[in-house]
Amino acid sequence: MRKQFAVIGLGRFGSSVCHELNEMNHEVLAIDNDEQKVDKLSKHATQAIVADGTDEKMLKNIGIRNFDHVIIAIGEDIQASILCTLILKEMNIKQVWVKAQNDYHHKVLDKIGADKIFHPEHDMGQRIAEFLTSEKVIDYIDLSEDFSIIEIIATKKVIGKTLAEMDVRAKYGCTILAIKHSKGVNVTPNADETIKEGDLLVVIGHKNDLKRFQRDGI
Ligand code: ADP
């Protein structure tokens, strides 16, 4: 289904969000107070306009109320990011997602009702560190402070074994959600499924359990 999004702030983060949403064929309204940024992005949005995200009157005039989902990617200017969030939440926009610069910014955004808060640089740093410290892990999603999903390469240690033989849940407290192989993805695989060379396992669990599994179980 085609959805409507507005993105305020077209720096590196905001513009790449616009690009992706546009590629996915959603309707994207892109806003920045810098004309050059707007010009650069105009090809990758349904509409791109030069405007200040803290100007309440202007936001009303462009009909931002009709958008269910607004992403605020104003970078350095924390005050503008907070004010823009406040205005949009007061207008009852359902989903206001905001890029935070630091923990203080995050706290304020949380207090004033931001529905999702991103730390792209920090998250990317964490992901890269995770990859650097394990050659087996090829992707990683943080679900919360304690839980993650990892995508891990099946090694010689498990190739030829069935899931029942691996017994990951009893031994490590993790669950294998899916097995990816060249022909596709097997979601919720059976216990008698045999791991083959080149398979990738998608595993969910507590971070400590996943670490033990990475170290000793595969
Ligand atoms: P990034 O780290 O994602 O590149 P930047 O700080 O470089 O972030 O970019 C933030 C963008 O937000 C810039 O393009 C800037 O012009 C825009 N911006 C800053 N303040 C406002 C505002 N009040 N209204 C609209 N856009 C803004």
UniProtKB/TrEMBL annotation:
One Pfam match: TrkA_C
A GO BP entry: potassium ion transport
GO molecular function: monoatomic cation transmembrane transporter activity
InterPro entries: NAD(P)-bd_dom_sf, RCK_C, RCK_C_sf, RCK_N, Trk_Ktr_HKT_K-transport
Stretches assigned to the RCK N-terminal domain: 2-118
SUPFAM superfamilies named among the record's database cross-references: NAD(P)-binding Rossmann-fold domains (SSF51735), TrkA C-terminal domain-like (SSF116726)
Domain RCK C-terminal: 135-218
Gene3D superfamilies registered for this protein in UniProt: NAD(P)-binding Rossmann-like Domain (3.40.50.720), Regulator of K+ conductance, C-terminal domain (3.30.70.1450)
PANTHER family: KTR SYSTEM POTASSIUM UPTAKE PROTEIN C (PTHR43833:SF7), POTASSIUM CHANNEL PROTEIN 2-RELATED-RELATED (PTHR43833)
Protein name per the record: Trk system potassium uptake protein TrkA
